[in-house]
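Posting for a labmate who doesn't have an account.
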Amino acid sequence: MNRLQRTLAKLDGLPAPLRGVARNFALRRAVPFTGTASLDFVALSPESSEIRIANQRPVQNHIKGVHAAAMSLLAETATGMVVGMNVRDDCLPLCKSLQVNFKRRATGGLVAKAHLTAAQRFAMANETKGEVTVAVTVTDEAGIEPIQCEFVWAWVPKETSKSKPQA
């Protein structure tokens, strides 16, 4: 169990109605931009994540839909969270590349669902560095996929104070 899993496990002791609020508070504080966009962390596990964004004024484009950058943020956060649930504490997750193809106009809010395979999770637990392509699906309120995405995440060893050059 890594640091993110341990942090979220502490919230399991809260009454059910408070868990989602507490999870959103903790994760939005850890990654402030997710709070700016008011992302809703619906479900997180080592296997998958589900994150929502409402079609509200702060994330809208000029045609009153969810902005392209906000859609990308949603997909990046979903993939990053599932990676974060698996990366070892001595490693740092990094988004290596992303590709977002905009297919059609979105209707209403969006939900992103990302998942890792058992083989990907095994590699993250047992290798000091590597990379994975994380599957993610983004759907709108009409059940349509307005974007198709591919995110490649890497993990590398964290630098320690011993390995940093002295000034």
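Reply:
Got it, the structure tokens are right above this. The longest helix spans residues 68-84.
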